[in-house]
Amino acid sequence: DIQMTQSPSSLSASVGDRVTITCRASLSISTYLNWYQQKPEKAPKLLIYAASTLQSGVPSRFTGSGSGTDFTLTISSLQPEDFATYYCQQSYSTPWTFGQGTKVEIK
Amino acid sequence: QVQLQESGPGLVKPSQTLSLTCTVSGGSISSATYYWSWIRQPAGKGLEWIGRIHPGGSTNYNPSLKSRVTISVDTSKNEFSLKLSSVTAADTAMYYCARVRLDYRLFDSWGQGTLVTVSS
Asked: In whole angstroms, what separates CA B22 from the centre of its chain?
């Protein structure tokens, strides 16, 4: 299985801050990397796919980058509705696997 | 816009079989451009992919669960189902069904989830 490791596991930030979350794959996955946002008691929501393509309807303050084994999700200016847990997911090979999540909390 | 809704018992006894159904509305489950998948999440923990099915019937399961999992599809009812046998407390989780876009294998639509507790 491909292991996905996110860092940090949690972070505290203020509204307006720039936030960066990192995801590392245990082997090269090209750009088969997707990002999801999950709020408490809700299903995950797709934000970015193919490492850098913004899903329709997702605000442009979310950007993704990377290829191979190292990827980042950046929120350019954190908004109140962005406080949530973020997961990366590799779709390069089955079993599809997720990172352990990064919880973004209010400072 | 497609919507997915999970249904099934919220409580299952140890050693029994967990059975859930995902009903798809607003779109056809027979579309060849999508897989249909199950994912679970224990309370306070991360996401685990269980398996997927193509409307043609081909399946792919997570090896960690493969010996206990069956996913099937009923195109006439626009629904797909999950069976997980010989459950233990470790199978207690929120279970989500999701649509998978074939090109990038991304989960683009999710059900709201259903909590299944394994307990006697």
From this structure: 7
- Cβ of B110 within 8 Å of Cβ of A99? The answer is no
Q: Nearest-CA neighbor of B96 among B4, B3, B2?
A: B4
Q: Does B48 touch chain A (CB under 8 A)?
A: yes
Q: Which residues of B touch A50 (CB under 8 A)?
A: 104, 106
- Note whether A89 and A1 are within 8 A (CB): no
Strand partners for B36: B53, B99
Instruction: Output helix, strand, coil percentages for chain A, rounded to the nearest 5.
Output: 5, 50, 50
* Interface touch A43/B108, C-beta < 8 Å: no
Strands B69-74 and A70-75, by their bridges, are: unpaired
pLDDT per residue as tens digits for the range B36-74: 999 999 999 999 999 999 998 999 999 999 999 999 999
Q: Does B106 touch chain A (CB under 8 A)?
A: yes
Report the side by side order of strands in the sheet with B69-74: B3-7, B18-25, B79-84, B69-74
Tokens for B3, please give them. 């919507």
Q: Chain A to chain B, count of Cβ pairs less than 8 Å apart?
A: 55
pLDDT per residue over B54-63, tens digit each? 998 999 999 9
Token reading at B39: 């994912």
